Amino acid sequence: MKRALSTGWIAFGLLFSCRPLTVQQEAFDPSSAWLQHGGNPGRSASISSAPAWPLELKWTYRTSATAMPTLLAKGQRVYVSMMDGRQVVLRLQDGKKLARIRLPANTPYALMLAGEKLVLLRGQGENNLQSCHLPTGRFDWRRTIGPCQGEPLLVGSRIYVARSAGTLSAYALEDGRELCSVALHKPPASTPSFGHGRIILAVEPAEMRAFTLDLQPEWAFTAEGIIRSAPVCRDSVLYFGTTAGTFYALQMRDGSVKWRQQVSGGLYQAAAVDDSLVVFGCTDHHVYALTTATGRLRWRFATAAPISTSPLLCADAVVIGSMDKTLYAISRQRGRQVWSFTAQGRWRGGPILAQNHLLCAAEDDRIYCFASP
Amino acid sequence: MHRRKALRRLLIGLCAAVILQPCAASGQYYFGRNKIIYHHFDWRILQTEHFEIYYYPEMRELAEIGARYAEESYAALERKFNHNIDRRIPLIFYATHAHFQETNTVSSLIPEGVGGFFEFLKGRVVVPANGSISQFKQVIRHELVHVFTHSKVEGVLRDHKLMNHPQPPLWFMEGLAEYWSAGWDSEAEMFIRDAVLNHYLFPLAQMHQISGSFLMYKEGQAVMKYIAENWGEDKILQLMENCWTSKLFSEVMKRTLGVDYRGFDEKWLYHLKKEKYPLLETGDAARMISRKLTRHGINIKPAYYSCGDSQNVVFISNRTGYSNIYRTALNAAEHKTKPEILVAGERSPEFESIHLLNSSIDVNEAGELAFVSKSGESDRLYVMDIEEKRIIETYAFDEVISLFSPSWSADGQRLVFSGLAFNGRCDLYSFDRTTQQLTQLTDDAFDDRDPALSPDGRFLAFSSDRGVRGQSGDYHLFLMNLHDKRIRYLTHGAFNDHTPRWSPDGRFLAFTSDRSGTSNLWLARVQELGDSLSLPLKQITHIVTGALDPAWTRQGDLLFTGFENFGYHLHWLENPAALFDRGPSAEQDSLPQRIASWTHQRLDGINTIKEFQYKPKYNLDIAQSQITQDPIFGTSGGAQLVVSDMLGNYQYFFLFSNSARSQSELLSSFNVAVSRTDLSRRINSAIGGYHFAGRYYNRYDEWFWERRVGGFGALSYPLSKFSRSEASFNLRYSDKEWYGRGYRRQALLASQFFSFIHDNSLWGSSGPVDGQRMNLTLGYTLDVANSNVNFVSLLFDYRRYFRVSQQITHAVRLWTQINNGREATPFYMGGSWDLRGYRFWRLWGTKLALVSNELRFPFIDRFIVHFPFGGVAFNGLRGALFVDAGNAWDRQLEQVLGSTGFGIRMNLGGLLLLRLDFGRKFAITEPNSFYRPASWNMEKKWFTQFFFGWDF
Ligand SMILES: [Zn+2]
User: Fold this and answer.
1) What is the pTM of this model?
2) Which of A41, A312, B371, B717 could hold A319 in an S-S bridge, CB 3.0 to 4.6 Å?
């Protein structure tokens, strides 16, 4: 605290009685860019850069509990939320803890960065949707919105949240006021995504629904099986799979099937999509790569256990983690392994790439950061 | 899948959680029954991708079938759970249930109803085969569901760093294990139908009241089925994933399914009523279509027996808690006569277990009863003359470990039965009484059961999974021509047929089948069978819940077991043949021409990594730091470690602590004990050494300091399941200084003890209710260096439980303990364990004696205390009237102290017993005085004593 003051930065803690953030060093970068799991509102998890394989372990950070699926990296900072309800801010360069966000309750928060704001959403409890202004550490607003599921979605200046009671609601980023809401009549089954001007959300057990930005229902599509993962939008096509192993590509404009493909394992994790390839992992230990155009199988890669993370599509490789505790980089052209790293626990969430640093969390309570030597 | 299981596992406690419950017996080693190790198995390990399969060479075939199925199950469950197990799962197989009972992987005795267990200290899955491959597979699957559920839930809680968060309730764990292994079968259907139609189904909100019972398993299975059908199977997975969200599972359900227990119960019970009530429109209750012959307990496996004019039924029942064979007259209900015990089971080495649920009995024309019982290492076949109530023949067969369902030929000269060999194969055998020759009739991995000889002695009908549908676990009836041993189908289809029984005239076969959803009686007309492939069949009972065990009377009536209102009772159905000719025409199964040959899949298609001999490797079972707080000694800390090998045959115990009060005492006050126990043989042994030093206090010596360094050895040899002898030797150097008395002595003490222990007691909810227990110990302690100490010891503790009636027991205890000689150590007495009304350990002396009498009876069945916020129900309160008298003394007994009063006992979930005693103390002075009569003093004041512990 003393040190923060002496370096001239505002000490958030002193300004507010609740002292939500405690920064020990360095301030937040005010540059604004959308950043969340999947890298964009469509959650396509693809990135045009490519690290130089093989990578080397640069640092690990010991978390107090398993990390939530979403790791956020922006500028030099990595935001980590843990399942025991704590969150930390790490420095990308060396994994040093920069700050700790102090919030009550032991239920975990899903994090989302919106410009200078950090939006936090937790599944239940008081004030479960709140926004923190990072440069000041002050909470702009807090709202109790009732039990909700998954992660928030930011589109423009609106936050979309799926609520367990069976509604999809939009809140203003500015002040958290509810803008509009739509009744789903069924519990939501996924985190919402955005693409082609539409908000997409799965409802139980296997229905995909599209809404306008004002939450006017547009179309609905019923799939075979059960949807457990977030839909992915890219170039006016929606991609998702079911636990029965059916993978769908739907036209965003009307929900018609562009193609579908059956695989032998179930999908519990979202896919990653770029211009030509859609990649996902299954319970049958395999990673599948299909062409976006026709859904034809490009390659299949076998690991030793069910796949436990969503993939990250880089320019030259796919990075994905398995319950065999190994994080694989697979060449996107031919489906061959180009690099791997084995941790002490199963890999979780989804890997992210920030400034040529590859980050992923594992069940051994560690965040791993890899970079080129 | 097959109804047979219903009987086999009625008294089930499939799960470790149930059988690992702290043994009710206080002083497990003071009394207790014995697990006898008859075999020294040559253990091997077969390593597959996800398992380490432990087996012995004789059961290689079974091990391969089990390994293959375990891998298959793993793949299926990995997907269902979206989860993997990140270590190889130790899977310990036994070829027979009798072998399984020798396992040291758990220390408690394994009842016959336990089909296998998952133990989470070492993550072991222990599964026996018992003839039926399909059941073996189902138990493997059941236990693997436990492994996955446990790992998944642990993972979720670990993610959130919730270390002391409750696991999902037992009904969820067991219900899921049943549902994801057996699906929905006729056994579950029978129990749920019965519970719904007889209004005893426990809703989720009250499920804790039947926790661990067989009904809980079946209800849990039904809950899972309902969730899967109404919300989807994925919700079962989500219930596990959400278990961290609340400590109350009802809240977890609310979050996942949208309904809490209450909401769920409302929907579920309504659904069940809608589904089951209409069954009464076409179905019957057993007591409405036949005469009910029994009222209490489980009564099964009837056999007809006539003697002169009297018609009798011989059957197996556990009405007293022990399983016995009984005889009763068919018209007993009219004369109000009670059944008479023919064979008293489970109390003596001859009749250790008469396989209540697994084996039927039979009586021949001459009035000879054939039955089987476990006696020591294997089963014996007994023939009893019923009129004389005398065993006239006993047979044991080297090649067969377990025997089931003996059945007579019409002339009473031959017996057929099914037998389980060392390798786990269950085949049919025929035994000729005249030539004393045993003939094996089948020899393969199929499960052949319930043999019955035709009246002309030419054919053998039996039930088996050898048909093509046996691959999916279905049992059908087969007929063997004894002349050429050719086997043909009698029935075939997607159902289970069991227990064929020939009518006395040979026209019909009665059998049970679950074709109509639950097990019912059917007749097959076999009269004109010939080579024809069609057999006219007809269902003759339409009992909604179930009918089993048909047995013909000489007049052509049928005796059978009906399941109804959670009881198994005998029934008498007159003239079933008439029912065959009445009503709709007979059905026919389409029978395959020949028995297609098939075998169980073995290692083909799975990855075996390596095979090797088992060598004990030790790892930690328990490590606990022990902090003891004592008003006299203060707080002292220590650590306890237990390590053992995978099979639990060898165990090491380590104990460390320090009782130092100051830095300078640190080294001299180090307490350490190490011991090794070997349970691998029939004779159990232990050796160890220790160093104890510190200040101690007892009422006799008061404050003293003592250092003891020594070693010990002990042997225990079980004579039978019920009695054993023990010997121990202890050599120690003792340096003892009495603070107050300024006296110090050093001694090299040698002690030796011999004990004889007997225990065949039967436990009720508050303590023993039948049988007896005894411990007789003799010993001496001697200072071999300088004769400072020299005394002999005697302990005699005898407890006998007299059954006054079904529910009432009179318990008597005689206890005396004597140490006589130089520096004889004192004994203590007083408190709820022995002399009630007196403060704990208030009486002491080198001699003590106690006589206790207690009448134990049911007090209140159930009462509910209501609070503004809800109610608490108490079940099964028991009462006691007691008189205790005794004392401890050194030289002369001057006074006998005693107490008498009334007590209440409440069982707290099977783990603890809360005892509350009220009474008055009394004293008899000068009991030895010859001249004056003893004087008697009763205190006016009443005492009240609270206590947690079992009745003596
Ligand atoms: Zn179980």
Assistant:
1) 0.90
2) A312
